[in-house]
Each structure stands twice: as structure tokens, then as C-alpha cells.
Design a protein that fits this description.
The chain is of the alpha/beta class and about 240 residues long. It contains ten helices and nine strands. The strands form two sheets. The chain has a six-stranded parallel beta sheet, sandwiched between helices. A three-stranded antiparallel beta sheet has the order 5-4-6. Helix 7 links the parallel strand 2 and strand 3. The longest helix is centred in the last third of the chain and has 18 residues. The protein starts with 6 loop residues before the first strand and ends with a helix. The model has no long low-confidence stretch (mean pLDDT about 95). Bound molecules: adenosine-5-diphosphoribose. The site of adenosine-5-diphosphoribose has 23 residues, from helix 1.
Length: about 240
């Protein structure tokens, strides 16, 4: 482990589960109540914009009411103390990584507390409803949508992500089912560039067999333990 300099961490809904935010594919998952096609596709938004705005109003309110958990705090500490490259690529639209203090965070699926103006392309921090079609603070037009990457849309900053995977010595996947691409393919890209791979998850993900090591358990226990381990090893290297 001593020759680890550059780390890429992928997080999914599981890292925020213990903060009270619902995951997607569990029995009580979000996609059980709201078919993806209705609330997480451009077609769904065109068909029933009010339903989609209500869905993301609910997400926004839940995010604001949630607090970071020990897993977010451990990654924030690692971010602060790790002297090599480190990138937290999150599929999550919550801001719990940032509220825990992490800085090197990339939201590949967008952000629940951001509104995107489809008229002038401006993005704004947004913590209230979008249901009443408020005017864009930049251009004044009522063309704001959730700044979320929906199914069928291109995730954000893919070039930057694959450049980081190409330089990675270690890829760690935390709290994701490995059900959705391109994120589910990151482990293979990391392996192709010679990185070691570790999965921290409540249950084996769909890509578990691709990882060098899988540790099963809640993120609030596994992530602090792993972060301590990697920092101590780097000091002792
Ligand atoms: N600690 C660690 N892992 C957990 C915990 C926990 N406390 N609770 C749940 N998990 C794991 C589950 O075992 C599961 O493997 O987190 C994973 C959550 O999987 P999903 O609900 O599929 O969420 P995610 O992998 O983030 O989904 C990826 O799919 O629908 C899209 O855009 C959405 O970003 C999302 C993407």
C-alpha cells in the first residue's frame, strides 16, 4: 500500500443512507415510489414538469434537513490530510461531502441544491421550490430546472474523471450498487491503469467480483476505519 499517491473515490447513495437520505434500489428505495421514467428523464420533465419539480423539491428539502455522518467526515479528513491527488466522484446530489468539509468533490450526476437555467445556461444555488417557475436570477426567464443529470443525459466532467482514473493508484467504491453506467465502469478503467481497487458497501455490488477487496458493512463504520488505515500507512511508508 506504500506506493499509493493518487486516489479516486466513488460514492453512491449508500454513503448518505445513515444521514437519513433514501437510496434508490432498496425495497423502500426512491425508485419504488417514483418510476425513473416519470421523474428522472427529460421526457418525464416534458410530460409532467410539475411532478418532476415536486420530486426534486422533496429531495432538496430532505438534503437541507440531513447532516453528514462519520463516513462523510472521514473522507473530509482524508481530503484535508492526503498530500497526493485525491478526487471524490459522487453520484449523489446531496452536499454532505462538502458540509463535512471535503473540497476535492465532483458531482457527476449534478446537485440537488442547484438550479439550471435552460435559457441562458446559468446555474444558481437553489434551496426553495422550483414549482412556481421562478425567474432565472441571471436572465429573468422562467426556464429553471433541477441541475440533475437525468437518464439519457451525459454525466458531468467525464473527461476529468477518466483522467483521474488513468492516474489512480487506488480506486475505492463506497455505497453504490454498481447498477448505473458510466459510474459502474470506473472500477474496470481503474484496473486497466493498474490501480488497486477496494469496495466498501453494505452488500456486494453488481461489480464486486472486479474489486481486489470488498469489505461489507455500514459506511459509517467502514469508511473511518479505512481512512485511518490509509493515512497511518502513508505516514509509516
Ligand atoms: N453503508 C454502506 N452502503 C450502503 C448503506 C450503508 N449504510 N446503505 C445502503 N448501502 C448500499 C446498498 O447496499 C447499495 O449497494 O448502497 C447502495 C445503494 O445503491 P443504489 O440505491 O442503487 O444507489 P446508487 O448506487 O448511488 O445509484 C446510482 O443510480 O438512479 C441513479 O442517479 C441515481 O446516482 C444514482 C445512481
Amino acid at each position: 500500500m506504500s506506493d499509493i499517491r493518487n486516489i479516486v473515490i466513488l460514492t453512491g447513495a449508500g454513503i448518505s443512507a445513515e444521514s437519513g437520505l433514501r437510496t434508490f434500489r432498496a425495497e423502500d428505495g426512491l425508485w419504488e415510489d417514483h418510476p425513473v421514467e416519470e421523474v428522472a428523464t427529460p421526457q418525464g420533465f416534458r410530460r409532467d414538469p410539475d411532478l418532476v419539480q415536486r420530486f426534486y423539491d422533496e429531495r432538496r428539502a430532505n438534503i437541507l434537513a440531513a447532516q453528514p455522518n462519520p463516513a462523510h467526515a472521514a473522507l473530509a479528513r482524508l481530503d484535508a490530510e492526503w498530500t497526493g491527488d485525491l478526487l471524490i466522484v459522487t453520484q449523489n446530489i446531496d452536499d454532505l461531502h462538502e458540509r463535512a468539509g471535503a473540497h476535492r468533490v465532483l458531482h457527476m450526476h449534478g446537485e440537488g441544491l442547484s438550479a439550471w437555467c435552460t435559457a441562458c445556461d446559468a446555474r444558481h444555488r437553489w434551496t426553495s421550490t422550483l414549482r412556481d417557475a421562478p425567474p432565472c436570477p441571471a436572465c429573468g426567464q422562467s426556464a429553471l430546472r433541477p441541475d440533475i443529470v437525468w437518464f439519457g443525459e451525459m454525466p458531468y466532467q467525464m473527461e476529468r474523471i477518466f483522467a483521474a482514473l488513468g492516474r489512480a493508484d487506488l480506486f475505492v467504491s463506497i455505497g453504490t450498487s454498481g447498477a448505473v453506467y458510466p459510474a459502474a465502469g470506473f472500477v474496470q478503467a481503474a484496473k486497466d491503469s493498474g490501480a488497486a481497487t477496494l469496495e466498501l458497501n453494505l452488500e456486494p455490488s453488481q461489480g464486486s467480483r472486479l474489486f481486489d477487496e470488498t469489505r461489507l458493512g455500514p459506511a459509517s463504520a467502514l469508511v473511518p476505519e479505512w481512512a485511518r488505515e490509509i493515512l497511518e500507512h502513508a505516514r509509516g511508508a
